[in-house]
Automatic annotation (TrEMBL):
Chain's role: Catalyzes the methyl esterification of L-isoaspartyl residues in peptides and proteins that result from spontaneous decomposition of normal L-aspartyl and L-asparaginyl residues. It plays a role in the repair and/or degradation of damaged proteins.
Sequence similarity: Belongs to the methyltransferase superfamily. L-isoaspartyl/D-aspartyl protein methyltransferase family.
Entry-linked PROSITE patterns: PCMT
Subcellular location: Cytoplasm
Record's catalysed reaction(s): [protein]-L-isoaspartate + S-adenosyl-L-methionine = [protein]-L-isoaspartate alpha-methyl ester + S-adenosyl-L-homocysteine
Pfam short name (any one): PCMT
UniProt GO molecular function: protein-L-isoaspartate (D-aspartate) O-methyltransferase activity
Name of the encoding gene: pcm
Protein name, as recorded: Protein-L-isoaspartate O-methyltransferase
GO annotation, cellular component aspect: cytoplasm
Family annotation (InterPro entries): PCMT, SAM-dependent_MTases_sf
Entry annotated with the keyword Hydrolase: no
Keywords from the UniProt entry: Cytoplasm, Methyltransferase, S-adenosyl-L-methionine, Transferase
Residues annotated as the enzyme's active site: 62
Amino acid sequence: MLSFEKQRRELVEMLKEEGIIKSQLVEEAMLSIPREHFVPPHLREHAYSDTPLPIGCGQTISAPHMVALMTEELRVEPGHRVLEVGTGSGYQAAILAYIVSKKPQGHVFTIERIPELAYRALRNIAKCGQNIRRFTTVVVGDGSRGLEEFAPYDRIIVTAAAPSVPRPLIEQLKPGGIMVIPVGSRWSQILQIVEKGYDGRIRTRNSIPCIFVPLIGEYGWRQYDEF
Ligand code: SAM
């Protein structure tokens, strides 16, 4: 079997050839953050398959192409304050932390509703080194309400499917900010790119169809049955 590092390089090359990875920063982040730290031990040999994998508690780590595409769509920059809703394994948060940490004022706040996953994510993120760890804060709670305490944010990324764009997230986005969020029903969602103009006006554009686990909470789905 190829080493994890070699598998990671091959995956990144493939995502570049497919036109999913476009920017230097996203390429660097995907090459620098080891996905094998974020998948359960018995699935480690599949860490570089371009597919979602189970992480326990009925949840998943998103496929690498989805992480790359969402990060590109987010147009995240060094120094940004980013909110991620749906920490899961912590992989997407670590990718974002790699980029924002290139300027000292950058930070990633990531919120997860299932405490067990949040604690595990924190440990996974710590495996990526002090720098990534220092630029990331993991919070347990209902991220459909956003995270008022550290708002406003330059960027917001939601990695669970919402029935509509939660109002608190729009309010917590800075003017000039961008949010990426899957919106739709159980089996069909569209990745939406929501931009808040400097005049406060909201413009929404559809990216690609996608399938995520549900955003469960006050401004998401009330429970799994409803999804
Ligand atoms: N970004 C993650 C990663 O890199 O591994 C994958 C996220 S997984 C597809 C979606 C996550 O959203 C799950 O861990 C789920 O528990 C979480 N979630 C669902 N509703 C939530 C809510 N209201 N607030 C916070 N997290 C939520």
